[in-house]
Design a protein that fits this description.
Blueprint: E1 15-23, E2 40-45, E3 52-55, E4 61-67, E5 70-77, E6 80-82, E7 87-91, E8 94-103, E9 105-114, E10 119-127, E11 134-142, E12 156-161, E13 169-176, E14 186-193, E15 200-202, E16 206-207
Parallel strand pairs: 1-8
Antiparallel strand pairs: 1-4, 2-3, 2-5, 5-7, 6-8, 9-10, 10-13, 11-12, 11-14, 14-15, 14-16
Length: 209
């Protein structure tokens, strides 16, 4: 006896959703740890409670090409507070969205001095939310781009516990030693407050050459 079966022809996704997470005050992208403890974008279709999860690149961008045209709600999770609790967007073809947030900590890293194997890095920091406590100031370095607190191949990290100091803004000096003069290193500042989720904020990466 022979049996036949029909093949269901499901429609393929026909829309791309991309965007970036932006500091509502500075209009700069909010850096993060990427796939290692970085920003996560939850996208809900219609009234669904099950999110489509989009990971962010370290520079705050995200993209997902597996959407169907329709109406969605976006909630971003990371080292920040969203300006609005959520964002509602209509997605079709190639849709872009900016997610406005206030980061927990604003950071900038700069090289003060260097010699053959040692670099002095200045970290400027500003805690944004008065209700939070600044717990850690850090510097991470790696021979690969965009190091984070969990991945820093060929490099390392230095962590200063500062929760007892009641810091709000200022600068911190870190001295990185034992570097290979022939290599290029990528350096980022990082900071963490006592906000839920234990997410780290990051500076833009700088390079040693």
């Amino acid at each position: 006896m022979l049996y036949s079966c029909s093949i269901d022809n499901y429609e393929a996704p026909n829309a791309v959703l991309s965007g970036k997470v932006i500091d509502n005050v500075t209009n700069e992208p909010v850096e993060n740890g990427g796939v290692n403890g970085g920003t996560v974008i939850h996208v809900f279709e219609g009234n669904s409670k099950q999110p489509i999860i989009c990971n962010s690149f370290p520079d705050g961008r995200f993209v997902n090409a597996a959407f169907f045209s329709g109406n969605y709600k976006i909630v971003a999770i990371g080292a920040f507070k969203m300006v609005s609790d959520s964002i509602h967007v209509s997605v079709s073809n190639n849709s872009e969205v900016e997610i406005k947030v206030l980061p927990n900590v604003r950071l900038n890293a700069s090289i003060v001095s260097r010699d053959a194997s040692t670099i002095t890095v200045k970290v400027d920091y500003e805690k944004v939310h008065e209700s939070q406590v600044l717990n850690e100031l850090c510097v991470i370095w790696s021979t690969y781009p965009n190091p984070n607190m969990f991945t820093f191949s060929g490099g390392g990290q230095k962590i200063e516990k500062v929760d007892s100091q009641n810091l709000s803004s200022g600068e911190k000096i870190f001295v990185i030693s034992g570097l290979n003069q022939g290599l290029n290193y990528y350096i980022r500042a990082a900071a963490r407050t006592n906000a839920a989720g234990s997410y780290y904020n990051y500076s833009k990466p700088i390079q040693t050459r």
